[in-house]
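Thread: Newbie trying to understand structure tokens

Hi all, I'm a second-year student working on a class project, and my supervisor (Dr. K.) asked me to get a predicted structure for one chain before our next meeting. I've only ever worked with sequences, so writing a 3D structure as a token string is new to me. If someone could post the tokens and maybe explain what I'm looking at, I'd be very grateful. Here's the chain:
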Amino acid sequence: MICLLTFHFTCTYFYTAPDTFNSIKLEIISARYINPFFHQYWALFAPNLPDYNVVIEVSEKEGVWRNISHEILENHYSYRITEKGRLALAFTGIARWATWECAVGRVNEKDPEKYQHILKDLCRGYLRMNPTDDLRIRLTKYDLYSAKEGEFIF
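---
Reply by user tm_fold:
Sure, no problem. This is what the structure looks like when written as tokens:
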């Protein structure tokens, strides 16, 4: 019984440990044991926290890009009862999702147009509130600890 428990917890450790601790052979063995019966969506160690912030910027025609993430949140905080809460939720959700995908390193892995579809839908919502003729929208990553210019993501 002790051997069985030792095997179980060893496989669980190698299944949930970061890739830097695992060999491919141990990962395959633990995945075959854990995956059908004991699989869970968590990891033993959290990834490193990102040292940057992702914001949503808009520009009309060929104008200057401006950060509207902050504007949307401020409008939501000022007028809590209006429909701006949905827009604020959409903006913060997309920015958090992009921040997480940059931290994990999956930004362009499978679907390079993923954020373009999301940003098109976001544009439609933004244009309902602020009608304009020509709107451009993008995600930009800014370093939290310096004043460097942002790195364009999508």
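A couple of things are worth pointing out once you decode it. The radius of gyration is 21 Å. The CA atoms of residues 6 and 12 lie 10 Å apart. Feel free to ask follow-ups in this thread.
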